[in-house]
Each structure stands twice: as structure tokens, then as C-alpha cells.
């Protein structure tokens, strides 16, 4: 079972929200969704992808993490910590829950990740503030978590 660490409610609307990996991995991510309310409530947030970089070619396309298809994935450029993928939101918003679908094997899935948020565009995975931690994501399924 995933282990989630929850944080107090935050009321600040964020312009940028992203998942940063804190265990080295050649990360592959099938789907990533953020929501303005707890328990995947409200309308799924949309925006423009922000990332530390992709592998290039079809597998590096950030759009594959946001296409609604759990069988297509984005692949990180390398195998280090602090690679990230997220969104510059179309409009600043509270971010109180999220879900991630991992559709890969354990070597492509980091054991620990965090969600970070900011009102300035990140230039490194650890920019902004940490709003949630995800430990030991379950492979090949949705991992839902609420942090408000
Ligand atoms: Ca996908």
C-alpha cells in the first residue's frame, strides 16, 4: 500500500504544481492529474507541461502524461533524483489532491516522490514548497492522494 504523508490545508492558489522524484529512477509516468479540492474533487486542473526534461522522441513527450491513456507514458531524460513533471496551470488554483498512474516496472518507478508548488516557474525540482509526499507508489494502478 502507498504511504501518504498529509499536510495542513493550504489556501494559497498556485500557478505551478509538479511531482519531483526524490529517489533516483529512469522515471516513466503514465498519467498525472491535479485537482483543486480534496478527494479528486472539483474540475481537473489543466495547463502547460513543465518538466526537467524528457527522453526525446515519442517516449519523451510530456503530453503522454496528460492524454488520459494509461498505456502511454512520459519518460524522464535521465536516471537522477529531482527530475520533475507538472503543470503551469491555466489559472492559479488551490491544489488539494492528485493522482498518478504508474504503468511501468519498479526500475522505472521511483520509490519516493513529492508534490511541490510555486507561483514562480521552477528551474529545479526542489524549487517552491513541498505540499505532499508519496512513498512506495503501487505499480500499474492509480495512486490517489489528498493533502488538504
Ligand atoms: Ca498517458
Helices and strands in order, then pairings?
Elements: E1 3-5, E2 14-21, E3 28-29, E4 31-35, E5 47-51, E6 74-75, E7 84-93, E8 97-102, E9 112-118, E10 129-135, E11 141-146
Antiparallel strand pairs: 1-10, 2-7, 2-9, 3-6, 4-8, 5-7, 8-11, 9-10
Calcium ion binds next to loops.
Describe the structure.
The structure is a single chain. By secondary structure, this protein is mainly beta. It has one domain. The protein has strands at residues 3-5, 14-21, 28-29, 31-35, 47-51, 74-75, 84-93, 97-102, 112-118, 129-135, 141-146. The strands form three sheets. The chain has a six-stranded antiparallel β-sheet with strand order 1-10-9-2-7-5, with no helix packed on it. A three-stranded antiparallel β-sheet has the order 4-8-11, with no helix packed on it. Strands 3-6 form a two-stranded antiparallel ribbon. The structure holds calcium ion.
Keywords:
single chain; about 150 residues; mainly beta; 6-stranded antiparallel β-sheet; 11 strands; binds calcium ion
Number of domains: 1
Number of helices: 0
- Please give the order of strands in the largest beta sheet: 1-10-9-2-7-5
Overall form:
globular
What kind of oligomer do you see? single chain
**Whole-number mean pLDDT:** 87
Share in β-strands: 35-45%
- Name the hetero compounds present: calcium ion
Order of helices and strands: EEEEEEEEEEE
Terminal residue distance = 20 Å
Describe what is shown at a glance.
The protein is mainly β and 148 residues long. The protein is 0% helix and 41% strand.
